[in-house]
Amino acid sequence: MPGLIDCVTAALDARLSLDADRPVALALSGGGDSMALLHLAADWCARRGRRLLTLTVDHRLHRDSAVWTAFAGEAARDLGADWRTLSWDGPKPATGLPAAARAARHALLADTARQAGARVILMAHTADDIAESDWMRDQGATLGALRDWSPSPAWPQGRGLMLLRPLLTASRADLRALLRARNALWLEDPANADPRFLRSQARMALQSETPSFSSSSRGPTATASTIVEAMKSSPMIWSGLVTLPRAVPARTLAAALLSVSGQAAPPRSPRLTALHARLASDSEVTATLSGARIQASGQTLLITREPGRTGLPAAALPPNAPAVWDGRFEITAPEPGWSVGALKGRMASLAPVDQAIVKRLPASARPALPVLFRDADPRPLLAWRVAETRCLVAGRLIAAAGGIGHEDQLTHSSGETPPADLFLNRSGG
C-alpha cells in the first residue's frame, strides 16, 4: 500500500503545480478505480494546498444511474472535494454506443473543467486498462495507446487541457485493497460484465492474467523538441499553417493533420500509412487528407487547411465571449452583429493593406483564413482587425507531440497571435 501511495504522489508532484489557486479536476464514476483515485488525490490536494474538483457524468444509460451519481457525489464531498454532476442528454445511438459515450463523456468533462479554471483532469485508468486495450487492438479495434500524460481528446472543448493518469502502474486489485483498508465502498457497473461490449470481452479474456505496464512516454521526446522548435521558428504560425521536417513519424504527421484541419477525428490508418510512404519515397508531393493540404518539397513539409470545393461554413459570433471557429481559431467579437467565415472567394473585397498581409503567406494558406463581416455590411475584414483572435493549431500540435510536460506550461498554450506590429495600420477597415 505505501508503494502505491508513493507512486501516485510522485506522479502528481511531477506534473502538477504545488501552489496554484486553480482546481485539479478528477473524473469520478463511483467505480473502484476512480474511488481509489479520489482518496489518493484528496490526500495529495490536502497536503499540497490544491482544490479538488470532482466531475461525475451521468450517461443516462441505466435506470440506476441517478443513484450511482448521487453515491459518487456523497463520497467526494465526504473527502472535502467539490463535486459537479454532468448529464449526457438527448438520443443515444443504436450502434457504437461505447465510443459515443466516451466522446460525450470527454466533451462534458473538458467543458466543465475548463470553465472552472482547471488545466488538468485526473483519470483512473490502470494497468488492467492497458492490457485490455492491447487485447482489443489485437481483435482489430482502433484504439490509441493510454499515456500517463496526454491532451484531452475532446476538441475544441479540451483545448488547453491535459489528462493525467497516475494509476497506470497499479492493478485494479491494488486499488480495491486500498479501498478495503479505508473501509470505503465502490460501485460495480453491470456494463463491465456485458459481453456485447468489446471492453467487457477483454476483461473476461484477461481475468486470469496479471497486468503488466509499459510506459508510452515520460517527458519530452526528440520528436517533441523538433515540433516545439519548428513552431517557435515559424513567423506565420498565427495563420494556422505548419511547417515540419519531412522525416516525421506517422504519429506526428497524423497530429499535424488533425491540428491544421481543426477536426476531432484522426485520419484513417490505411490512408495515413499510404501518405507517409509517399513522403518517404517521392521528391515532390502534393496531397490532401483529413481536411488538410500537404506539400512536400526538399526536406520540408508545408501543411495548410484545405477548405474544400464548397468552402468553410460561416457562423455568427457571440459578443464578448470566446468562440472557436473551424476548430482552429478562438475569436472574441467585441460587440454583437459580427459573423466569421473563410477568406475563400472574398480576397478581392479586402482592403489593400490586408491583401498585402495575406499575400505574405503561401497561397495554400490563404483561402482558410478567418474574416469577419457584419450583417448589414458584407465587406470582409481579417479577423485580427476586429476581434481578439488566437490560432489554436500550434498549441494543439505541441501538446499532441509531447511538448507540454507540466501543468504550468499550459499557460502558454492558449493560442498564437500575429506579430504585434502586423496590424498596427488600422486603415484596413
UniProtKB/TrEMBL annotation:
<protein>
    <recommendedName>
        <fullName>tRNA(Ile)-lysidine synthase</fullName>
        <ecNumber>6.3.4.19</ecNumber>
    </recommendedName>
</protein>
<dbReference type="Pfam" id="PF01171">
    <property type="entry name" value="ATP_bind_3"/>
</dbReference>
<dbReference type="GO" id="GO:0005737">
    <property type="term" value="C:cytoplasm"/>
</dbReference>
<dbReference type="InterPro" id="IPR011063">
    <property type="entry name" value="TilS/TtcA_N"/>
</dbReference>
<dbReference type="InterPro" id="IPR014729">
    <property type="entry name" value="Rossmann-like_a/b/a_fold"/>
</dbReference>
<feature type="domain" description="tRNA(Ile)-lysidine/2-thiocytidine synthase N-terminal">
    <location>
        <begin position="24"/>
        <end position="203"/>
    </location>
</feature>
<dbReference type="GO" id="GO:0006400">
    <property type="term" value="P:tRNA modification"/>
</dbReference>
<comment type="similarity">
    <text>Belongs to the tRNA(Ile)-lysidine synthase family.</text>
</comment>
<keyword id="KW-0547">Nucleotide-binding</keyword>
<keyword id="KW-0963">Cytoplasm</keyword>
<feature type="region of interest" description="Disordered">
    <location>
        <begin position="409"/>
        <end position="429"/>
    </location>
</feature>
<dbReference type="GO" id="GO:0005524">
    <property type="term" value="F:ATP binding"/>
</dbReference>
<dbReference type="InterPro" id="IPR012094">
    <property type="entry name" value="tRNA_Ile_lys_synt"/>
</dbReference>
<feature type="binding site">
    <location>
        <begin position="29"/>
        <end position="34"/>
    </location>
    <ligand>
        <name>ATP</name>
    </ligand>
</feature>
<comment type="function">
    <text>Ligates lysine onto the cytidine present at position 34 of the AUA codon-specific tRNA(Ile) that contains the anticodon CAU, in an ATP-dependent manner. Cytidine is converted to lysidine, thus changing the amino acid specificity of the tRNA from methionine to isoleucine.</text>
</comment>
<keyword id="KW-0436">Ligase</keyword>
<keyword id="KW-0819">tRNA processing</keyword>
<dbReference type="InterPro" id="IPR012795">
    <property type="entry name" value="tRNA_Ile_lys_synt_N"/>
</dbReference>
<dbReference type="GO" id="GO:0032267">
    <property type="term" value="F:tRNA(Ile)-lysidine synthase activity"/>
</dbReference>
<keyword id="KW-0067">ATP-binding</keyword>
